[in-house]
């Protein structure tokens, strides 16, 4: 049974979460995207992780090569029909590292500056951004790490939840970033593992389009730190109901790219926004 704690004051300035770094500006989930987002001044770097055949934690949205943005290990083009045949869970990281995922500009993001880029290891992201943060003289960035897990994908595109969770948490611990990392997942199994095994970790329950929100939250065995709904489902009534029933729950919707939508959500008092264009949100906040 969920039992919300005391209400927390709403932040004066909502957090800016750079989605896959800054997908609208640089190739998604790559070092160039993360470094550019850091330079822009995001509060949180949002990224996705999958597992390679040799149990490395790889930063990637899909557990396969997306034909829209990736080339194969020999530089070959990938047809839309063949994308899932490049199953990263069946490939060692040394091979994944040879696949370029930056030169093909994503067709949905015309402002994206394409450049050669690969799928980095999570450990490499932490190391590179630690050095870059020191060079910029800015406070350490926080992380939202989405574990890409589904029941249908168990032992096909990723390990079972317990192993997946352990591999990711080991990287957070080694990099000493656990205290400023939130684990995100659409799959409640991962979040419930986190609650049982590492209750100190912040968690975010992602939800696509189901309403009312409370019915989905009540399916969990605990109350996560943050709720991440699809921004298109947000209404004033839904926010009021959420704040009333779960006053301690942080609200960070995704993926908010239109300045008009950003203004609307700011007026509703969200705690943060995940966006492909952090420059747009930062500009709004500074104005």
Itemize the secondary structure elements and their pairings.
Blueprint: E1 15-19, H1 31-40, E2 44-51, E3 57-59, H2 93-96, H3 122-136, E4 142-147, H4 161-175, E5 181-185, H5 188-197, E6 202-207, H6 213-217, E7 226-229, H7 236-245, E8 250-251, H8 259-267, E9 272-275, H9 278-286
Parallel strand pairs: 1-2, 1-9, 2-4, 4-5, 5-6, 6-7, 7-8
Antiparallel strand pairs: 2-3
Helix pairs in contact: 1-3, 3-4, 4-5
How would you portray this structure in words?
- With 287 residues, the protein is an alpha/beta fold.
- It has one domain: Phosphatidylinositol (PI) phosphodiesterase (TIM Barrel), CATH 3.20.20.
- Helices cover 30% and strands 15% of the residues.
- It contains 9 helices and 9 strands.
- Strands 1, 2, 3, 4, 5, 6, 7, 8 and 9 form a 9-stranded mixed beta sheet that branches.
- Helix 1 packs parallel to helix 3 and helix 4 packs across helix 5 (188-197).
- It is globular.
- Residues 14-285 form the GP-PDE domain.
- One of its GO terms (molecular function) is phosphoric diester hydrolase activity.
- It comes from Hymenobacter glacialis.
- Pfam families: GDPD.
